[in-house]
Amino acid sequence: MIPSETVSKLQTALPFWLSLGMVPLAILGAVFGGFWVILLPLYGWLLFGVLDAIFGRTTENANPLTPDSDLFWYRLITLIWLPIQFCVVFGLIYYVPRADHLGTLETLVLFFGVGVVSGTIGINYSHELMHQKSRLERWSADILLAMVLYSHFRSEHLLVHHIYVGTPRDPVTARYNEGFHQYYPRVLRQCLPSAWRAEKAMLARRDLSVMHLRNPFWRYAALQVLFLVLAFSLSGFVGLGLFLMQAGVAIWQLELANYIEHYGLTRAHIGGGKYEHVRPHHSWNASHKASNWLLINLQRHSDHHYKPSRRFPLLQNYSQKDAPQLPYGYPVMTAVAMIPPLWRRKMNPHVRSWRNHYYPGIEDWSAYKDGTNPMPR
């Protein structure tokens, strides 16, 4: 176990700052065009897939009792990312349409890369921040999500996913044999109404109308409209289109991660709409060192579901005997997920092995595969 005094040091935290490497790449792409515009997606996917192969896995765990006061350098990167991303996204929305040296294809590839930045880093950091108690961190999460027009993710994630993961009520638990290209339109269709219903139910428990100002959807809408207006005011319809493009890529990146995190993993229905409690084996894990640096330990997903408010440097690694393990880190697995036959060939044997290990008594998995088990009470 890594002691608290080691965790608190800057040099221990520095690998988690690798997300900042995307910022100069975005600037280089905008200034020079050409080959430079493809460096952002290459950095996020190819480079960290290669680094995972070089550095391998790590099973080291930080002392989970390390106080927040010793986590300054980790918290700082998640807080400074908001102004950094704001400057990258809107600075490029202003600059690129006025840059005569950038052609249409270069512009589109560049803003695809910007979407990789706001999705791989921005939404991931918002996920870390939304689980914390401080008002500053929660507001930062809301602003980052509004910057990609996906504000309802906070409500859906906190009020639906963490409660109902692995059951038919959770839209983002990918079903066995469900390819990503089936999954993606389904979650886009289901998550927004699911988040709205969850907030409506919470307001009702407080005897408040869904139209009450306490409904966070008013805040979500205001922030998203503000960013749309800002993009249009900077560069007109071109700026608005570029903003929408990076938001779309970011959402796609998020849902790719959601897809692989729980693919085929279900909680046992114990009768009458009751399901077993969430346990570590209901999430896929990856202990690959480099991609966990980039994704601030998102791949230690079982522990995140066990302790949702636990800050990312303190998330614990689970071994194969306690939780299922992905064969590769997220950069490689998300690429594989885009090719459903390859994904099924790679992952379905792992799911079947998981079923045999944890649920040898379940013989008929059809209701779990189809999502037709009773809704949880």
Describe the model.
With 377 residues, the protein is mainly alpha-helical. It has one domain. Helix content is 60%, strand content 1%. The chain has helices spanning 4-7, 10-13, 22-32, 39-55, 72-95, 104-130, 135-146, 152-164, 180-205, 216-261, 289-294, 301-306, 330-337, 340-358, 366-370, and strands at 269-271, 274-275. Strands 1-2 form a two-stranded antiparallel ribbon. β1 and β2 form a beta hairpin. The chain is globular and about 65 Å long.
Summarize the structure.
60% of the residues lie in helices and 1% in strands. With 377 residues, it is mainly alpha-helical. One of its GO terms (molecular function) is monooxygenase activity.
N→C terminal distance: 39 Å
How would the global form be characterised? Answer: globular
The helix tally amounts to 15
**Low-pLDDT windows of residues:** none
Please bin the fraction of helical residues.
Answer: 55-70%
Domains (count): 1
Protein name: Alkane 1-monooxygenase
Membrane topology: Multi-pass membrane protein
Subcellular location: Cell inner membrane
Transmembrane segments: 25-51, 72-96, 108-126, 221-245
Write the layout of secondary structure elements.
Blueprint: H1 4-7, H2 10-13, H3 22-32, H4 39-55, H5 72-95, H6 104-130, H7 135-146, H8 152-164, H9 180-205, H10 216-261, E1 269-271, E2 274-275, H11 289-294, H12 301-306, H13 330-337, H14 340-358, H15 366-370
Antiparallel strand pairs: 1-2
